[in-house]
Amino acid sequence: MKTLDDEVIASAMRSIGGRAAPPVDAVQRVVATAHRRRSTRRAISTAAAVASVVCIIGVFAAVAHTDDAPGTAPATPRDVNWQELTGKEVGEALGWTAQPTGSAYCPDVFVEFADGPEPNDAMGFCFTYTDLEAAGVPGTWLEARVLANQIRGYERSPELFEYVQLQDEYMDLVGSHEPDWDRIDEIRDRLRVLRLEIGMVDGPGNRPR
Amino acid sequence: MSRLDDPGFEQFVKAQLPRLLAVARVLTGNDHDAWDLVQDSLARVGSRWSHINNRDDPFAYARKTLVNQNLNRARRGRRETLLSNPPDQQAPVDAARGFEHAWLESALRKLSRQQRAAVVLAYMEDQSVAQIAEALGCSTSAAKTHLARGRRALRAAAPTTEPEGVQP
After folding, report:
1. Sign, Cα dihedral of A125, A129, A131, A134
2. Residue B91 domain-assigned?
């Protein structure tokens, strides 16, 4: 039920938001940007189709060329069906070197596959959206997340999404000006339960107390 | 000038830009980020316009994109702005409005991103808990929690609203 406070809040919020008409050229700018983006998407699709053809030719050429040791060269990004690879294979296909995930800068998607040198750390690849997009891997936030789920062998599940949501909320709370420690503890406990439900491979620090 | 094949998108932008911008201003807390957020979100919407246009409510899709983009930017931003020397505080939305509603801006800044999105959708857009959950991509119970915590914090920060002469 709405209270008097709610009406004050809603009114103040609308006031902060404002409803002034934007400059005329702003509309044109937005439309032009959308048009450019769509053109880029089409160009990428076309390039991917061309790359597929080149790839098929390349496969025939590779089969004919038996001098090279098999499996030594990383695959061309666009000829890979990313959804079917493990996280480790994605990293390797891109020619990257595994590193401790805890020390990585600006990682958007973690793929962990082995214990790291430090407690609570793991070895793996730390994908950024920029890297993924540059490599031709479907790299929008959602796609990358789904990709991460699949390459770690998880099914898309309510538990997994709850886990991701809570983990994000946890990060926000810990970084906020006045952390709500009760909620943080609540989230930590729930994350531990969810890790077990999801079947996530746990480091020593993640095990339930 | 570059134009989309479907002029309906341009009409959509003209009609909905002020409303999206208002939501974005409260979500981000400043005008510059709000513009970036709206532009980025609408660019995404526009690039898929032929699919979105057939939906019952293209605005709902655009608003959801806006909210998700904001959460997404927050995640990237948080990781990219780990500085040893923090920069100055960002400018308020507008000097006059920022002063008038400083209590609200201050309270909003203390909320988590999800809580902030939940209260903005509830107060500004009159969205139900189910709709907020859908926009945030979380369960209804999680959305309810975000909204309740956000609402509690804002109510606590709101100026006293008792009518004059009435004893508490």
Report:
1. positive
2. no
